[in-house]
Structure formats: structure tokens, C-alpha cells
Amino acid sequence: MSSSAAIGSIFSGCLWKEEARVSKDRKRGVRRLCVRGSVAPLQQRSMNVQISESTARIGVLGASGYTGSEIVRLLANHPYFGITLMTADRKAGQSFASVFPHLIKQDLPDLIAIKDADFSNVDAVFCCLPHGTTQEIIKALPKGLKIVDLSADFRLRNIKEYEEWYGQPHKAHELQKEAIYGLTEISREEVRSARLVANPGCYPTSIQLPLVPLIKANLIELENIIIDAKSGVSGAGRGAKEANLFTEISEGIHSYGITKHRHVPEIEQGLSDASETKVTVSFTPHLMPMSRGMQSTIYVKMAPGVTVEDLYKHLRISYEDEEFVVLLGKGAVPHTRNVRGSNYCFMNVFPDRIPGRAIIISVIDNLVKGASGQALQNLNIMMGFPENTGLLYQPLFP
Prior knowledge:
By secondary structure, the protein is an alpha/beta fold. The protein folds into two domains: about 200 residues, Rossmann fold; about 160 residues, Dihydrodipicolinate Reductase, domain 2.
């Protein structure tokens, strides 16, 4: 029996039913003492032997970057996943604590070069490598591994489109056909049976979550969708770049990738799937002088006869049972500071002063729901665990 199946058999009569019950009770406004965040740890304390024997063994490839360290932080409280392999070519031979001292209390293997990695002791991997380097590495991995790829290498189904936007040929055509685009709340069932999941980018996550349900319901027009998006500097990665120095970024707003940002085809692919016709958007990203956080302000034209109230009601229905996507109360403005460090997406919709148009604001933590948190959410589903496992960190404030 696989590790995930073993744990699934242990908890199928307890954890899953309790999770479903709490979800239903939450809809009715009933509060229970046995909440989702406390069920797994209570089970773990009483069943240490079974859990330790059934832990899924996790590899983190490219562990020395921001998304890699965030994976490790999130897994610290995951009762079923244990890290057995960590790679970082430039930091090979070093302890993880020496690279990320804030995680010094974690009991982790030392970092090694990927060429020295032994995958015989691994059940699933998070691939946190830069785009362009990931395809051949994943192609060489053992076929039995579950993989969540946080790079852009498998997000675009059209190989020619990948070559156009990333400036190099795709080197794993067959794997691209197998990859599932893992926008969890939209593609949950496809993720469940996947071996390879392409984790969405941060901007596309914040944009597609509000827009996809509205497009599917034909509530907004497909023309003149304008997206003004802003990200914390961690979204640019950990590599040393002059443009990302403190003195370059602080005390100002830095627009970049104007008309040619590589997330554009990913956004348009998702919206086109939802509409079943080609969608083109105007998208401009900006770096903000903050470490974390992402806000997408989206301007849309409503379909004839549709009101902002209709948009609000449909988003409420679409996400009322979701753990991590929250439609705020009417008039409440989403702020990045209120999702910092969490896997939540907060959103809301407002009337524009221009008749027939609406403004949608969506905020996430770009490193969590925009990257590592959604990756863990996806792997939980792929391995047969409740998708919120290890993800119930509440936002940090102030």
C-alpha cells in the first residue's frame, strides 16, 4: 500500500467526514469546537506510529530560492509529508539552516547538487527551479513520482507559444501533453488524477480566480479587460539583480514587462478556456517596495443587463464552500496586508463610475497562494489528503 493510501485508510472514517461536517456547519453559521485546523494534530498525537510509518517522502528541487524556503516553512506543520531530499546546486554541501536561518529548528537533510540526488527515497517532488532548466530535469525523474512544478515550463499547452514568450524551444513535448494546469479551485478534479501539475504563476492566480467564474457565466464582456497588477519584490526571485536592489525599488513603483510580460499568455489561456473563445487582455505588472503581497485591480465591462450585484452574487456562490478564496462583505476593500503569509485570496467587486463597468480587486501573498501554498494544496489533492493540510496558517499582521 502506498504511503498516501495507508494514511487515507487510517483517517477515511474520521478526518474527511469531520472536514465535510465543519464545512456544512460553517454554511449554516454553526460554530463547533472541533475545527479543521485541530483535527489532524489531535489524530497525530494519538497515532504517532502509524503516521511516522506512512509519511509521504518529499523532495524539494531548487530549495535555496524563495519558493523552496516557503515550501519548507509550510511543511513544518504538515502531519503527513516529510522532506527527505533537498537540492540547490549553488549551495550544495551546505545545511538548509545556513541558507535560511529562520528555519534553523527544522530537521532537514543537507542541500546537494541535483546530479547527486537519489530519488529512491522520494514519493513526490516540488520543483522550484528556474524556467528553462526544469523540462529536462523533470523528464529524467522516475516515472512513479508525483510532481508539482512551480516554474513556467509546463503552464502553456501550446509549445510554439512557449517558444515565443520564453525565447527557447520546449524540450519535453510529451510531458507537456501530460501536465495539468493546477489552478486548484478551478481544476481540482483534473489535479486529483495528475502525475505532473504545472503550478500557476502568481499574477495569473490572482487574476483568474475572480474572472474565470464570471466569464463562464457570461456575466462580463470579453473585450477591454484591463488588469493593473502589483507585486512584492520577492516575486522577482532571490537572484541578485541590479533592478531589484533596495535603492532601485524603494520609495517608488516600478512598472516592468509592459505589453510583453510572460504571464500574459498564461492568463489569456485560462480565460480563453473559460470562454471557449480567444480572450485578449491588457496587463501591466508593477513591483512595489514590499517583500510580499500581490494585488490585481481588474476593470471589466458587464454583459447587457448585468449589474455589479449579479457579479457579487455569482462570486459568492462560486466560492462559498472554498477554504482559501474569500469574497469580502460588500464595500470591503481587499488589502495585501490582510493575506500576508497565508494561502488566502481575498476579493471583492465594485461599481465603476463609468456606467456598465465594474472594478474587481483580488489580493494574495505571491509566495503562498501565488506559489508554494497553492503547490502544497495541489500535492495534497494528488496524494489523497485534505487539501488544506499544512495550510491553515493565518495571515500575519501587522
